[in-house]
Amino acid sequence: MTAAAAETVSEGSPGNPAAPPGVRRSSGTLHYILRRLGQAVVVLWGAVTLSFLIIHLVPGDPVRIMTGGGEGGEGAALDSAAEAQLREQLGLDQPILIQYFDFLWRAATFDFGMSYSTGQPVSSAIATALPVTIELGIASIIASVLLALLFALGSVLLPTQTLRSGFQSASLLGTAMPSFWVGILLLQLFSFQLGWFPAFGSASWQALVLPSLTLALLTAGTLGQILTRGLNEALAESYADTARAKGISELRVVLRHALRNASLPAFTMVGMMVGGILSGTTIVETIYGRQGIGMYFVQAIQAQDFPLIQALVILSGAFFVIVTLIVDLAYRWIDPRVVAPQEHSSTKKRSTAKTTATKAAEKGGTR
Amino acid sequence: MSAAAQTDQPLLEIRDLTVDYRRPGGSTQAVRGVSFQVARGETVALVGESGSGKTTIGRAVLGLHHRNAQITGSIRFSGTELVGLAEAGLRRLRGRRIALIPQDPLAGLNPVHPIGEQVSESLRTHGLATGAEARRQAVQILERAGLDDAANRYYSYPHQLSGGQRQRVLIGIALAAEPDLIVADEPTSALDVTVQRRILDHIEELVTQSGTSLLLVTHDLGVAADRADRVVVLQHGQVVEQLPAADFLNSAEHPYSQRLAAAAPTIDSEPLVTQLPQTQENDAAQPLVRAQGLTKTFPVSGGGSVTAVDAVDLTLRPGQSLGVVGESGSGKTTVARMILGLSDPDAGSLTLAGLGHQDYRSRSGRKELRRLIRPVFQDPYSSLDPAHSVATSIAEPLRALTTLSRSERQRRVTELLEQVHLPSAAAGRKPYELSGGQLQRVAIARALAVRPKVLVCDEPVSSLDVSVQDQILRLLAELREAEGLSYLFISHDLAVVRQVCTEVVVMRHGQVVERGATREVFAAPEHEYTRELVAAIPGSRVRQQV
């Protein structure tokens, strides 16, 4: 046995003593993706079920609420024949289980019925609003990531401690200001005073600048803080010293050695930001008058337009599930140690269990 | 390592070096007026305990000290003054002429880059090679550093290699640009003793071949004595003595060096425990721990399983102190966990303090087991709740396992503090106010609180400085006699086991390869692996020469 081979056996690779590295990678990945897809389907099913229940959990008769009446009262405005027709149209006269399976089927085929307030099919309303929001979302996330990088790099690379902490405090400002206020401020300055960008609409790229900046300022502060913290931690690691001892510059230590390690927690945050696009744009879309999903949400709720609300809830859920899946898969690309996250989490669970048991033993607990 | 080459000028000359760490509200002087030299081709060891400033000096030579550190004095390297040298000037030297082998091989490599790229970066940084040529040279360097199959491992990530292999990559990074001086900061302290020996042999060979000077920073006096030409002993940031390594363990003059040398357990230090006389009474006594065919397997992700403990037989009789020795992955900790009742064996029988497996699995049996067999863990910093006072931590088992009243518990805590030689004022302190050695005393007091019969000590001194380690080992020996305790002592450090264990069991790959009375096993090891372990104990080389 050669020296190095003996070492492999006696030391093992961490967390997984006997397995040769790299062997299970491909099959592990496939297994992982399938498992995650399975989970995604379960979460989606949950979202669909919840949105189905909305209509039945709202106190009172859904048809009456939809038709604008309260309990009895003005609801009488709609005659009973029309009410029955609507009831039938919505399938509310069927047994609840039938309604549920019918709803599941329609959700699976993207058929959410007619919007009550606009009279259009819900799916076509979404089809026009979705690109508007996605466009805003992508622009705001790019802006947010760039700003956060600027904050973080400044916070670790500036030459004096005073400058670094000053820079870091400045990044908090964005987070501290509410977005409706920032939005109005930006409108005042850049649209009304300077006239650089249009105040309303979603037609041109110029119209995208102010709303995405409003959204980005809100998240860039937090993202920058997370990134700064990650960078500081990475720069204090032993491998950063190994890199410095090679004679490379601090900028290169940061960019090549620390940034990728530091980006993992920030990446989780970006994932959450992306997932939140559909539901998080409400305020900004309202301020800037963009006909996006957020605007629709508000309108649907105001009009008590159940089919539209249901579709939007399912859409947000689906979007979140997909984004989370992509983020988790991308993790393995950023950090090669994440060979198969299901192992990772199970080892973690095991070690947590160990710690708890160990603590209990020390304290004399009997579990 | 090699005899100092005779040249007019030392390669590294440090004079009156002072390092201050400035903090808001004051400053701490980590290094105070240190002077020493390293000749070309010479290996100098900086030894001392935590806080002695040895690591700070190593950093200062590389210009890698912390931003808050204020350096005065002089560090001349090959005629160039490094103190006050601009960053760009330092960068030209770093990696090219002065290189670093860092402390922890597990943390020293960037986890997200392939190892080969990390080696070739040393070459590319200094314009020594680029592209495919840098790759080719990096493979050669890794081969020279002793990494097997280097060509195929070029694109491996650090987590795919063992600790020893990673340390070889770090050595490769340091050697890549053929520097004149290597600062090795505890290069092997995280590695198993046999791996440590191979790595140190290899470093020694490489620096001798190339005539490189080595500044070896270490807390391990055995390593220093074995591997260096000269030893510089540091205490509280000052040099207390400089002497040839061969004299260090035997004829140091300064009391502190003598104390250090005496505290370092080596292969022929006097044991602290004596074996119980073999009387019929002792042999007939019911064993406190009796394991037969003990087996534990863990599933490996992706199918299959690994047998961590493989048909192990163990007996611990009253009054015995049984050492379980082995390297990482030998299964010794898994054995300890089963004996503590923290994990269940997959096969075999285990009788603990007279309780069979079924008995101690029950709620009342578990309580009985927790009272009779108590653990002491490696790291007192993490095994004590930082939010609890010392008294609260010590009293915790009393609350859980006894019906003592509040005042009785307080009395017992005072008694226990006295037993472990801590002042009674320590009762109200929080862990952060105590040193590592004091915390380990608290952990021992907590283990003793309910008057157990057995202490299972899992590497109880391996995170402590030698002099503190010595004190804790003496305390354990003293308590064993006073309380009639039995120990199951898990350790990778054979010299430590030799001091406090009457019997020893040597484990490898989950199996027991040798067992017997400590004295005999160490004097005449039968199994090849035990011989290898004994031979790898640092400090043995110097002894052989004397």
Automatic annotation (TrEMBL), chain A:
The keyword ATP-binding does not apply. Keywords: Cell membrane, Membrane, Transmembrane, Transmembrane helix, Transport. The keyword Transmembrane applies. PROSITE patterns: ABC_TM1 (PS50928). It is a multi-pass membrane protein. The chain crosses the membrane at residues 40-58, 138-158, 170-191, 203-223, 266-288, 308-331. Pfam families: BPD_transp_1, BPD_transp_1_N. Residues 1-23, 343-367 are annotated as: Disordered. GO terms for biological process: transmembrane transport. It comes from the Bacteria. It is found in: Cell membrane. GO terms for cellular component: plasma membrane. Residues 130-331 form the ABC transmembrane type-1 domain. Belongs to the binding-protein-dependent transport system permease family. This is ABC transporter permease subunit.
Automatic annotation (TrEMBL), chain B:
InterPro entries: AAA+_ATPase, ABC_transp_ATP-bind, ABC_transporter-like_ATP-bd, ABC_transporter-like_CS, Oligopep_ABC_C, P-loop_NTPase. GO terms for molecular function: ATP binding; ATP hydrolysis activity. Pfam families: ABC_tran, oligo_HPY. Keywords: ATP-binding, Nucleotide-binding, Transport. The keyword Transport applies. Residues 12-261, 289-534 form the ABC transporter domain. The keyword Magnesium does not apply. Coiled coil: none annotated. GO terms for biological process: peptide transport; transmembrane transport. Gene3D superfamilies: P-loop containing nucleotide triphosphate hydrolases (3.40.50.300). Signal peptide: none annotated. SUPFAM superfamilies: P-loop containing nucleoside triphosphate hydrolases. Belongs to the ABC transporter superfamily. PANTHER family: D,D-DIPEPTIDE TRANSPORT ATP-BINDING PROTEIN DDPF-RELATED (PTHR43776:SF7), TRANSPORT ATP-BINDING PROTEIN (PTHR43776). This is Dipeptide ABC transporter ATP-binding protein.
